[in-house]
Design goal:
The complex is a heterodimer of chains A (about 800) and B (about 80). Chain A is of the alpha/beta class. Chain A contains 34 helices and ten strands. Chain A has a seven-stranded mixed sheet with strand order 2-3-4-1-5-6-8, with helices on both faces. In chain A, strands 7-9 form a two-stranded antiparallel ribbon. In chain A, α13 runs antiparallel to α15, α28 crosses α29 and α32 packs antiparallel against α34. The longest helix of chain A has about 40 residues. The longest helix of chain B is centred in the middle third of the chain and has 9 residues. In chain B, about 15% of the residues lie in helices and about 45% in strands. Chain B has a six-stranded antiparallel sheet. By secondary structure, chain B is of the alpha+beta class. Chain B has a single domain, classed as Ferrous iron transport protein A (FeoA) (SH3 type barrels), CATH 2.30.30.90. Chain B is globular and about 35 Å long. The chains are: A alpha/beta (about 800), B alpha+beta (about 80). The interface between A and B is large, with 45 and 38 residues. β10 of chain A pairs antiparallel with β5 of chain B, so a sheet runs across the interface.
Chain lengths: ~800, ~80
């Protein structure tokens, strides 16, 4: 098998990724180009005895040195010299797509044009004569409709044909007007003679780039001082000349001539039927981007996505929770209670399970976002919101990163930070990636849900909406602060295409959804696993001394002995071991009863059941008077038993609390109390927030442990909820403050790592400090305003 | 006969058509504008504006392009003046 390498290139929205998927199927590999954050997708396909490596270059409109994608694309072409470059050209938008084609011809690469979306073009009355286009451009042209796999085999045939016929890299000459052409020839000559010319680039192309003012090429030329000086002189002369005569930079003149050349070709190769003035896409836009109703439709769509996500993911999230619950049960039966059990259950399963458990939620959200992207609606949202976002120093395109991170509630900041790659300007990009962690990602929602359930029962849905709005307000405000202080600078141009509305392909949607979801899952498998174990250790060690544990054990024994003296009890429970068995059965009975399962019957055989049933009945009644009226013979014993249980729980709580205070995390939490007192947080909240640095999901489970509920999983969050409700230190105001604080404070560890990857350690560190300070200051304001006004103190 | 006059793109009204006469933007902005096909002698039509009246969406060479008013200021368009 002969091996060849081809590159796919083309404008954004030309159907490039659809062609890539059609060519390579599932055999894809995603990496980054060396040293930069631009994604490099490659795949393989076999055809007619050739093993073809397909590299998907970033979608670009041009090949200048002013955006990372364009530099990456042209460097790849020049340095790796692919055997064929497949230029995907959107037939329904021929002129602008050919602008890139012309630049490929200037570079001299071996080209094959995939004339894509010929069906859309003909629907719009644009008929492209492929033979005439091919002969005018001097490039083979293959018509394709990638969505329905049409023309893909022809394209492969043509690629092989070009390879077999042999191809020499050669440039095609277009005229850019007399002045520029003369300058080009002069510079070309100088480069050819220069000693430093490395023969990698064609001298003519280098000359053209010099005249275009291309910084990357100029730097290359300046390596040889004399050559650099001579060329600079010519460039300056021509610059002055075109400015004097045409009032345009040479770069502008060159662009004008390229489009002139294209116009000459399309005039001959394209026939237009008289098109109805508005095509379907334009008509849809009349409504969806209408100045009056557009924003309302947008809000409605975002609301529907919110509903869809939570409706769709409810069941699968439940399955995941059930699965991890089962897994924990399984581990507990295999490994006896102790440190190893605790490490696996509380450290690993809780930590990783907490993250993985939200995969369905995240997936549904990303699926909805993929629909918005692939239909072209996302670009409209950017268009409608650009003016607003610009006021805060962001860019219309920032909206995508904000939505992915949880702008509608329930996303993830890790792919959100990655989505900032679509922003060209580094300042706008960094400002955006610094504020995306403020959005309400899926991991924060259980905490919000738990606190809302405890303190804002009457306005559940409203509160969630309030917190969504708050997170946007904070993010935008923070962006403004960042953009007028550390990242001051002008906003970049917003020259953006609104792609025509398209019906997305399922395959494309699934690939999009999966890529982002995978980002989220990866964090569970790697970073979260390590951090969970570290946090578990911090919350476990040092353990209580033997002496202390013995004291608690003695207290428990004392209590048991006391209970066993209750008259009549000996008939049912003989000794301490029997009591333990009663406890276990009672717990099982309660949990089965609560689930209303018929399995209660399974316990029937136990002689303890009548007492358990009675105790359960009593525990459900409120007043003691009622209990006395109860007819069962066990009433007295049942009451005594419940009292015993309550006392035992208190002792366990005390032990648990003492244990937690003693651990490293507990000590840090207590130290931090000095700082967090003014915002109402005690050491237990501090420990939970510390845990939240690993992943926000951990906050709820840690709070549960800290409030001594033993092994708490999300399923039991209602228990925590009612526990906090009864706690005299808690109030709606404190709950509100905690929600605001956890909304803003440090991004989770995975996000910090991602911010570092997309910018630098400096900005990752900045985001930790900045967010902490912002969270503290705002929480301080919220809590103390509340206290001063007496709002939210009563339950 | 309607008279022709040249005005900056910002001043064009919705749905108004015209032909680009001059692009005075330089540097990065000029490059972006030109590579998207806004060069002299290109016909364009205003499609609409965003809710806050900025950016503007225009139809050019079979596609819709959006740009901010600040950028539209640098593009001079010859339009027919209504009587």
């Amino acid at each position: 098998m002969k091996k060849i390498k081809i590159a796919l290139s083309g404008n954004p929205n030309s159907g490039k990724s659809t062609i890539f998927n059609a060519l390579t199927g599932a055999r894809q590999h995603i990496a980054n180009y060396p040293g930069v954050t631009v994604e490099k997708k490659s795949g393989w396909v076999s055809h007619k005895g050739y093993n073809i490596e397909v590299v998907d270059l970033p979608g670009t409109y041009s090949l200048t040195a002013y955006s990372l994608e364009e530099i990456v694309a042209r460097d790849f072409l020049i340095k790796e010299k692919p055997d064929v470059v497949v230029d995907i050209v959107d037939a329904s938008n021929l002129d602008r797509n050919l602008y890139l084609t012309v630049q490929f011809k200037e570079l001299g690469v071996p080209l094959v044009i995939a004339l894509n979306m010929v069906d859309v073009a003909s629907q719009r009355g644009i008929i492209v004569n492929k033979d005439s286009l091919s002969s005018l451009l001097g490039v083979p042209v293959v018509p394709t409709v990638a969505r329905s796999n049409q023309g893909i085999q022809d394209l492969l045939d043509k690629i092989i044909e070009v390879v077999e016929n042999g191809y020499e890299w050669r440039r095609d000459v277009i005229s850019y007007g007399r002045d520029i052409d003369q300058g080009l020839r002069a510079i070309e000559e100088i480069i050819r003679k220069s000693g430093s010319y490395d023969k990698i680039y064609s001298p003519w192309w280098l000359a053209l780039k010099c005249l275009e003012g291309d910084e990357q090429v100029r730097k290359l030329i300046r390596q040889d001082e004399e050559t650099g000086r001579q060329i600079e002189e010519i460039c300056n002369r021509i610059y002055k000349h075109t400015m004097d005569t045409l009032e345009e930079e040479p770069e502008g003149v060159i662009a004008d001539h390229r489009y002139g050349y294209i116009a000459g070709i399309t005039r001959k190769a394209v026939k237009r039927k008289i098109e109805s003035r508005l095509n379907v896409s334009d008509r849809v836009d009349r409504i969806l981007t209408n100045r009056a109703v557009g924003p309302f439709i947008m809000l409605l769509i975002l609301y529907l996505i919110y509903e869809f996500t939570f409706w769709g993911s409810e069941a699968p999230v439940g399955w995941f929770e059930a699965f991890f619950g089962w897994l924990k049960g399984l581990v507990s039966t295999i490994i006896p209670a102790g440190l190893l059990n605790s490490l696996i259950v509380s450290g690993i399963i809780d930590g990783v399970g907490g993250v993985v458990g939200f995969v369905p939620l995240i997936m549904f959200m990303f699926f909805a976002i993929a629909i918005m992207e692939d239909t072209g609606y996302m670009a409209r949202i950017a268009f409608m919101l650009d003016r607003l976002l610009r006021w805060f120093g962001l860019h219309g395109n920032s909206v995508m990163a904000l939505l992915i991170s949880g702008g509608i509630s329930g996303g993830c900041a890790v792919p959100g930070v990655m989505a900032t790659r679509t922003l060209k300007d580094p300042k706008e990009r960094i400002a955006t990636l610094l504020v995306v962690p403020f959005m309400n990602c899926g991991a924060k929602l259980p905490l919000f849900g738990m606190l809302i359930g405890a303190f804002f029962v009457r306005s559940k849905a409203n509160m969630m909406f309030v917190f969504t709005l708050l997170s946007w307000a904070f993010a935008l405000f923070a962006a403004k602060v960042i953009r007028v202080t550390v990242l001051r600078g002008p906003t970049t141009p917003f020259v953006m295409e609104l792609p025509p509305y398209r019906v997305p392909t399922l395959k494309g949607l699934l690939i999009h959804t999966w890529e982002r979801t995978w980002q989220y899952i990866k964090k569970a498998g790697t970073i979260i696993l390590v951090i969970s174990i570290i946090l578990w250790a911090m919350m476990t060690f040092p353990v209580l001394s033997k002496e202390e544990r013995r004291k608690f054990e003695e207290k428990r024994q004392e209590l048991k002995t006391g209970f066993l003296k209750v008259p009549g009890i000996r008939n049912i429970v003989k000794d301490s071991a029997g009591l333990d068995r009663l406890d276990e059965l009672f717990s099982r009975y309660v949990s089965l009863k609560e689930k209303a399962g018929p399995e209660v019957e399974k316990l029937d055989k136990s002689p303890l059941l009548p007492l358990i049933k009675e105790a359960y009945k009593v525990s459900k009644k409120s007043g003691a008077a009622e209990v006395k009226a109860g007819e069962g013979a066990f009433s007295g014993i049942a009451i005594a038993y419940l009292r015993y249980r309550e006392e035992a729980r208190k002792i366990n709580n005390l032990e648990q609390q003492q244990r937690l205070r003693r651990t490293i995390a507990g000590r840090i939490g207590q130290m931090l109390q000095k700082i967090t007192r003014p915002i109402g947080f005690d050491y237990r909240v501090n420990v939970a927030l510390l845990g939240g640095f690993a992943a926000k999901e951990v906050i709820v489970s840690t709070l549960g442990t800290a409030y001594s509920l033993g092994e708490l999983n999300p399923e039991q969050s209602e228990v925590l909820s009612s526990r906090l409700q009864k706690d005299p230190n808690w109030s709606p105001l404190l709950a509100f403050t905690l929600i605001v604080f956890s909304m803003l404070y440090v991004p989770c560890f995975a996000t910090v790592v991602m911010i570092k990857r997309e910018s630098s350690w400096k900005w990752a560190g900045f985001s930790i400090v900045f967010n902490l300070v912002a969270a503290y200051v705002i929480s301080l304001a919220v809590y103390n305003t509340g206290l001063a006004l007496g709002v939210g103190l009563a339950r | 006969m309607a008279r022709k006059k040249t005005i900056p793109m910002r001043q064009m009204s919705d749905n108004q058509s015209g032909v680009i006469k001059k692009v005075s933007a330089v540097g990065d902005m000029g490059r972006r504008i030109r590579e998207m096909g806004l060069v002299p002698d290109t016909p364009i039509q205003i499609q609409g504006r965003a809710p806050l009246k900025d950016p503007v969406a225009i139809k050019v060479r079979d596609f819709i392009l959006t740009l901010r008013n600040r950028e539209a200021d640098h593009i001079l368009v010859e339009v027919e003046e209504p009587d």
